Amino acid sequence: MPLAISLPTSSPPPHLFPRRHANLRNRRVSLARSSTQENQTETGVIIVGAGLAGLAAATRLASQRIPFLLLEASDGVGGRVRTDIVDGFFLDRGFQIFITAYPEAKKLLDYKALDLQRFYAGAKVFYGGEFHTVADPLRHLWDSVASLTNPIGSVVDKGLIALTRARVLVKSDEEILMASDEVPTIDLLRGIGFSDEILDRFFRPFFGGIFFDRDLETTSKLFDFIFRCLALGENTLPSMGIGEIPNQLAAKLPADCVLMNSRVASLEYPNGSDSGPPVVRLQDGGVLKGELGVVLAVEQPQVDKLLNGIREPVVSRPARSTVCIYFTAEPDQIPVQDPVLFLNGSNTGIINNMFFPTNVARTYAPPGKALVSVSLIGSFEDRSDEDLAAEVIRELSGWFGESLVMSWRHLRTYRIHFAQPNQCPPTDLVKNPRVGSGLYLSGDYMTSATFDGALVSGRRAVEALLREKGLV
C-alpha cells in the first residue's frame, strides 16, 4: 500500500513558489503544510536537485502517491542535461548523445514523444589529412566492408571489435556493472589485442568523447556497459534538444511539487540528533522538513558542502571537464549533409570530436541556417573563449577547407567543469545511498556516469528510503 500522509489543502508560503518551469506553471497540487515552528513547511520527502537523478526520485515517489517537494537552485530542470535557445538555435549544454538502449530510460521515457533523431551508426575519423569511415557492420554492411583496409585499424582490429561486441552482449547490464574485476579501459583494450593505431585513431577520440577522458583511464565496467548499449541501441538526439528528456519527466509531476530558484543553504539535524531526517534550510530563509526523509540529488562537488558537519568530506578524484563551442553557418557552407560524428584521429590539435546538429535534427536551427558543435576535452582555463574559438576555426580549416570554415560565426561557448565524475578503478557502481537517518544520496557518481546511471540512482535512493520506512 502506498503511504498516504494527511495534509491540509492550504498552500505553503508564497515565497516557496518562485518562477517554475514553463511547462508546469498551470498545474497546481498542494502537497505541503505550514508549521508555526520557524515558519517551517513540511511534506513527505524533500528532494534537493532537479537533474535526472532528482527527477527520477520524484517520479518514483509520485508513483507511490507520496508527497514531496523537489527543489532546484536554477530556473529550470535537467541539471547538466539542458538546452538553451539562442537566436533560434537549440544549444545543448555540452556534447550529449542519448542511446536508446539505456535500460532505465526505456522504463521512464516516451521515446515517440521525444521524436528521437538518429545519428549514422559509425563515425568519420580525420587522419592523415583525410576522413576515413568506421561503420557498424550490422547497420551499414557495405560501408563496413569498404573500410576494412583503411588506416584507422587493421583487419584484425576490426575483427576484434566484433568479438568485443559479442562478449558484452552475452552479459546482462547487472553482471557488467556489478563485476568485481575491472581495469582501466585502455588496459582492457590492449589486453584484447587492439593495435596502437586503432586505439589512438578511433578508441581515444570516440570513447574519450563519451568519458571526457582521452587517456581511457575510466573503468572497463563503464566501457562494457556503453559498448553493450551501443550494440543494442541507436545514438540519437530529441528533435527539440537534449533538455526535452528532463522536461518530459518534470511534466508528469505535480506542478506545485517542483520549486525553481530554491537554493538550499544547509542540511541540519535538529538539536544535533540524527534520530530523524535533517531539516532543509533555504538561502531565502525558508525551512523545510521531510517527514520521511531527504534525497540529495546534486552534483558531487556540492555534496560535501551541504553535508558539512554531518559527515567527513569524501576524497574524490578530479572531475572530468569539457568545453563545447557552437558556430552558425549557412547550409551551403557545411561540407556534408550526413548525420555523422567526426573524430580527431590525428592525435594533434585541441578538437576531440565535432558534428553538425542540424544534420541530425533540422529543428536545431532556424530555417535557412546550420549549426556546428565542436567538443574539447579538459577545462582550458588559461584560454579565453575567443582564443579557443579562433583556434578551432583554424584547425577545422585543415579538415574541411578555409573557404567553408572561415565563414562560420561563433555563437556560444560552454565550459562544463563537472561534466562527469571521474570513474577510474577502483569503483563501486552500486553505492549504498543512505548516509544518515532519513538522508539519501543520488547522482551519476553513485552509479555509472551515464544518463541511465543518474536515473537509476534516483530510483535506488527512494527505494532505500521506502524500505527503511517499511513502505515496500
Question: How does this structure look, described?
Answer:
Strands 1, 2, 3, 11, 12, 13, 14, 20 and 21 form a nine-stranded mixed β-sheet that branches. Strands 9-8-16-17-18-15-19 form a seven-stranded mixed β-sheet, with helices on both faces. The protein has a three-stranded antiparallel β-sheet with strand order 6-10-7. Strand 16 (341-344) and strand 17 (353-355) form a beta hairpin. The longest helix has 18 residues, at 451-468. With 472 residues, it is α+β, with helices and mostly antiparallel strands. The chain has helices at 52-63, 103-108, 111-114, 141-146, 155-169, 173-177, 185-192, 196-211, 220-232, 244-251, 300-306, 357-360, 385-400, 402-405, 451-468; strands at 33-35, 40-48, 68-71, 83-86, 89-92, 98-99, 116-118, 122-127, 130-135, 235-238, 258-259, 264-268, 279-282, 287-296, 320-329, 341-344, 353-355, 370-377, 409-420, 434-436, 439-441. It starts with 32 loop residues before the first strand and ends with a helix. Helix 5 (155-169) packs across helix 9 and helix 7 (185-192) packs across helix 9.
